[in-house]
Amino acid sequence: MVLIKNILNNFFRKYPQLVRWMADKQEIKIRPFKERDLQEVYAIERRSFPNPWPKFWFESLHLQNSADFLVASQNEDVLGYAIAKTEGKFKLWKLQVKEQGRLLKIAVKKEARHQGIGKSLLQAIIARLIERGTTDIWLEARTQNIGARKFYRAMGFEEKKIVDDYYKNGGDAIIMAKSF
């Protein structure tokens, strides 16, 4: 047993980059938000958006039955999050209108981007919305955020409408939607 331990220790000392690579390959989990995630989620929020939401909004969304709040984590470190909400279940002239989903937020730590985490989060959120009976999802993104628009188009969203002066700083938003 001591011999095996010595061999492994020597190997890991000789090849530290392999050890880092193996650590990086540990499984990323998509799971429901937990209260202990709040600080990390809020840190990602502040670094990802020019006008971050207040922390209490995350706390309140976590408690709403109509909201799905998921995080991507690796070794309990939060790498990203996504929040969606179901809206609009009502009757219109005896016609039942199904709920629709709205993607409120999605963000991934800068150092964890371009690894499929955002895609996994969005797919998981859509799956949750489908379980709730929704038939489509919509979102808004800054018109200047070309990266986000490209990501959403790659995920099957269509650009529907530009809303002038949507954001506090006067920025325009693009409404995007996807049916399933």
TrEMBL record:
GO terms for molecular function: protein-N-terminal-alanine acetyltransferase activity. It comes from the Archaea. Residues 28-180 form the N-acetyltransferase domain. CDD domains: NAT_SF (cd04301). PANTHER family: [RIBOSOMAL PROTEIN BS18]-ALANINE N-ACETYLTRANSFERASE, L-AMINO ACID N-ACETYLTRANSFERASE. This is N-acetyltransferase domain-containing protein. It comes from candidate division MSBL1 archaeon SCGC-AAA261F19.
